[in-house]
Amino acid sequence: MRNVTLEQIFEHPVTQKYVKRAGLAHAIATSYHAFRLAEKNKVNPDLAVKAAFLHDMGHYTWYRDGEWDFDLYKKNDIHAIKGAERAHKLLIRLGEDRRNAKEIALAVLLHTDSFLPVEHEQLNRSTLQQIVAQADELDEEPSGNHHYRKISEAKARKKIVELDHRVDDALKSHVHHQTNEV
Ligand SMILES: [Fe+2]
């Protein structure tokens, strides 16, 4: 069973600061895409939704004179690295299983290749890592607008709780399959 729920992650002040900074609506939409893709590909949906929800928590605000500086961002961004570290630390604090925390952090790290020195470097991603990267792309809008989409606190919490239920149900039915196979 799960040691940590999405709702617990959502409530934590670290999440409130960093996931909101990068866009809560985008984080939630990406998590729903990841859930669907995980079910389709028979990947653990718990890991997929957690990695998707936290994938952009490493973002820094690259402002110059009050405006977002895309050049500055492109040159200096390490949000995937920073996000992997933040996600791992947060999950361990909340009591996540260590193996799961590592898998989730790695999926956060590899959701983009934008930090790699060689452009279009081919990453050899696991299915979980592919799912998180694909879920992120599915919610992307031109000019990074997906980071600015708004969602109310109440609606966000409702969606998070709903997704927790879906993950619980999915995990229960997986256990069922396994039991039937024995
Ligand atoms: Fe993203």
Can you summarize this structure?
Helices cover 66% and strands 2% of the residues. The chain contains nine helices and two strands. It has a two-stranded antiparallel ribbon.
Structural account:
This protein has 182 residues and is an all-alpha fold. It has one domain: Hypothetical protein af1432 (Orthogonal Bundle). The protein contains nine helices and two strands. The protein has helices at residues 6-11, 13-22, 24-41, 45-54, 70-76, 79-94, 98-109, 127-138, 153-181; strands at 63-64, 67-68. It has a two-stranded antiparallel ribbon. Helix 2 (13-22) crosses helix 3, helix 3 packs antiparallel against helix 4 (45-54) and helix 4 (45-54) packs across helix 7 (98-109). The model has no long low-confidence stretch (mean pLDDT 92). Fe (ii) ion binds next to loops. Residues 26, 55-56, 136 line the site of fe (ii) ion (FE2).
**Average pLDDT taken over every residue:** 92
Q: Which CATH architecture?
A: Orthogonal Bundle
Q: Give the tally of structural domains.
A: 1
Tally of separate helices: 9
Strand content: under 5%
Instruction: Decide which structural class fits the backbone.
Output: mainly alpha
What is the H/E string? Answer: HHHHEEHHHHH
Physical arrangement of strands within the biggest beta sheet? 1-2
